[in-house]
Amino acid sequence: MVPLMETKRNVLLGVSDEDCFFRQMIINTLLEKGYEVVLVFDGDEAYFYLKTADYDFAILDMNMPLKNGLEVVTLLNREQEVSIEKTPVILMSSDFSLEVKKRIYKEGVSHLLLKPFSQENLCKLIGLIESIIMLRERISEFKRA
Fold first, then answer.
1. Which residues pair with 14 in a beta bridge?
2. Model-level pTM?
3. Within a domain: residue 3?
4. Which of 34, 92, 101, 106 is deepest in the core (most CB within 10 A)?
5. Residue 100 included in any domain
6. What range defines the domain where residue 117 resides?
7. 24-52 pLDDT tens trace
8. Nearest to residue 89, comparing CAs of 36, 29, 47, 33?
9. Is the separation of the CB atoms in 37 and 10 below 8 Å?
10. d(CA 119, CA 130)
11. Does residue 4 lie in a domain region?
């Protein structure tokens, strides 16, 4: 695999194959909002791409093959050069047990998206992530000044 060219406003989307409805809804929503979407189908690909390119944020499925979304985040957190704080991660699943939620928040996952979800809820979450990104950029500019 070759790292993609870095572009402004890009999102990594990692989904399992059986979620074609949600995959297409997410892709359409992100494209309408002006994002370039990098689509991966397993946790190993997600891990590789998150290590080798910058993304505005990532949406990862808890049910991806090879590594689930939480396993990808855990591996990235172990890497010194990769910061989950820099790239907000949204984990999506149809079930989040209390134990899984505790692990998710311990690893620094930004948000949980419980399936099924509506396009309206997805848009609200993307808007929230965009606000967080803008705030981080302003804080960074302030620190440099």
1. 40, 60
2. 0.84
3. no
4. 92
5. yes
6. 10-144
7. 999 999 999 999 999 999 999 999 999 88
8. 47
9. yes
10. 16
11. no
Residue 55 has which token pair? Answer: 């993304």
Is there a contact between 108 and 77 (Cβ–Cβ < 8 Å)? yes
Neighbours of 46 (CB within 10 A): 31
End-to-end CA distance of the chain: 39
Q: What's the residue count for the chain?
A: 145
Residue 137 tokens, joined = 């950029």
Q: Check whether 72 has a pLDDT greater than 60.
A: yes
For 84-96, the pLDDT digits (tens) are 567 888 999 887 7
CA distance 128 to 122: 10
Q: Which helix (H) or strand (E) holds 107?
A: none
Sequence-ordered list of residues with C-beta below 8 angstroms from that of 75, at least 6 positions apart, any chain: 47, 67
Shortest CA distance to 125 belongs to which of 29, 39, 14, 55? 29
CATH number of the domain enclosing 47: 3.40.50.2300
Report how many domains make up the chain. Answer: 1
Q: In sequence order, what are the beta bridge partners of 58? A: 12, 89
